[in-house]
Design a protein that fits this description.
Low-confidence stretches: none
Radius of gyration: 22 Å
Strand content: under 5%
Number of domains: 1
Structural class: mainly alpha
Largest sheet: none
Helix content: over 70%
């Protein structure tokens, strides 16, 4: 698991670096303005539907059922299940994409709520352009799940690289000529390219395409039954994001963009560490659960939680205390002003408070999924969402963007605590003493590394100065752990 996780993390790290380049270009070309508000608002809607079936949501339900069918009925029957799901998703996603185009204005009114005509009309056009992104990503999500189940992590993980490369290329080639609409077309093309790049490896596994719609298959019926709570949970989380966007839209122009720019950095360690680990560990957990190997399930989950703490806590400290310097380093150029830096860095600071909680939720949720438990993650998700909405209402007027991002962190903390308690009570007995001890040690090492990094030598250039501080932080943190890393190697996560 460790080697595969590292490989996926490296690819995701490269992707996230490209993602930062992408955001730097968006900030440089378009700034934090009403036009970028329109883009981010429209993209949230298309991405809302994307996360329902793409990006692992359907795959997390499908893979345990596929493994069970393969174990009981053989490879051929299991492959029929793959194509039944793919064909059904194609029909559904095509329909939703068309509806997005036809009813784009109504969706923007409901989910975004821009009051000024310019932002609304721009967002409307962008949503129409990006609508079929959902179709491509929904199909890509199923294909990726199959590849991951057969340990073909390299191809499926590299789709994120393709997404960012396509967006970057689109901005450079079409940004000046077509403005923000060139960005919308780039998003659409990125979805198509992500699907196409996976198909050759996919057909090596399944051999040939089958036009199968076996809706009577008991596994299809079970899939739909299990998808209902999963979709409700994801739907709820997306409502959470939409509510934040809605409140941000009531603030000064650029507030939606500030939250979006900050979230890109906040999501960087989540994408690199949390999602990478979830991608690698989920097939192992699923296969172990099918075979009733619950000791393996327990050990893998505990190792995963420790690995997340090891990587995420230092990231959390850096993003909290170096937020302004990091935002300036990445975004402050072109039309992105010093005022934009201040607002975005404040949002990032309060996002980062809940980083460990949000990162671990991915693992804890999927740990419930291997036991076919969708109910408890849904209840936990909605509890967190309720808290987020209440705090948004209470905080946004006085604390503005900072209140909205703090609310997100508090909601993540509650969700994390509920899922951790549920997993321990119902399925595996987590060794909390060792887990808390690991977190405390990691936090102490991270704080000490930060303090030492503040005394790093200055180069006289603020961009170079922050890079030196970050390098010193990373070096000192790893030095604190070096004895464990060298002596115990990966056993330090056990």
């Amino acid at each position: 698991m460790f080697k595969s996780s590292v490989m996926v993390m490296i690819i995701n790290m490269l992707s996230r670096i490209l993602g930062l380049v992408r955001e730097m270009l968006i900030a440089s070309f378009f700034g934090a303005t009403g036009m970028t508000d329109a883009y981010f608002g429209a993209f949230k809607i298309s991405n809302f539907f994307t996360q329902l079936l793409g990006e692992g949501a359907l795959g997390s339900v499908f893979i345990p059922l596929y493994n069970e069918k393969r174990e009981l009925e053989g490879k051929e029957k299991a492959n029929d299940l793959i194509f039944s799901v793919l064909n059904l998703v194609f029909v559904f996603a095509t329909t939703v994409s068309i509806l997005m185009i036809l009813f784009s204005k109504y969706m923007l009114i409901i989910f975004v709520g821009f009051k000024d005509k310019a932002r609304f009309e721009t967002a409307d056009k962008l949503l129409k352009i990006m609508a079929f992104y959902f179709l491509f990503i929904a199909l890509s999500g199923i294909v990726s799940a199959v590849l991951n189940n057969f340990k073909k992590f390299l191809i499926s993980t590299s789709t994120a690289l393709v997404f960012n490369i396509t967006i970057i290329s689109g901005i450079l080639l079409f940004g000046k000529k077509y403005g923000i609409y060139g960005l919308g077309f780039s998003v659409l093309l990125s979805g198509l390219f992500q699907l196409l790049m996976q198909l050759p490896e996919f057909f090596i596994i399944v051999k040939k395409y089958k036009l199968v719609f076996d809706i009577k298959d008991k596994y299809i019926r079970e899939l739909f039954l299990l998808m209902i709570p999963t979709l409700i949970g994801i739907f709820g989380y997306q409502i959470n994001e939409m509510v934040d966007t809605r409140f941000a839209a009531l603030l000064d122009a650029g507030s939606v963009s500030a939250l979006s720019y900050a979230s890109r950095l906040y999501l960087l360690p989540i994408g690199v560490f949390a999602i990478s680990l979830s991608v690698v560990i989920f097939p192992t957990l699923s296969q172990a659960a099918v075979k009733k190997e619950f000791g393996v399930v327990k050990s893998q989950i505990e190792r995963g939680m420790n690995m997340l703490a090891f990587f995420v806590i230092p990231s959390q400290i850096v993003l909290m205390f170096y937020s302004k310097e990091i935002i300036a380093l990445i975004y402050e150029r072109g039309t992105f002003s010093s005022e934009n830096v201040l607002v975005t860095s404040q949002a990032l600071t309060f996002y980062s408070v809940g980083l460990l909680f949000y990162s671990t939720i991915h693992l804890l949720t999927r740990s419930h999924y291997v036991f076919k438990d969708r109910k408890r993650p849904v209840m936990s998700s909605f509890t967190g969402i309720g808290i987020n909405i209440v705090l948004d209402v209470l905080l946004y007027k006085h604390y503005k963007h900072m209140g909205l991002t703090f609310a997100t962190s508090m909601a993540a903390m509650v969700n994390y605590m509920i899922l951790l308690y549920s997993l321990n009570k119902n399925y595996i007995k987590i060794n909390f003493k060792k887990y808390i001890k690991f977190i405390v040690i990691t936090l102490v090492f991270s704080v000490l590394a930060f303090i030492i990094s503040t005394h790093a030598p200055k180069a006289g250039n603020f961009r170079l100065d922050i890079i030196i501080k970050l390098l010193v932080f990373a070096l000192v943190y790893l030095l604190f752990w070096s004895r464990n890393i060298i002596k115990k190697k990966i056993d330090m996560f056990g």
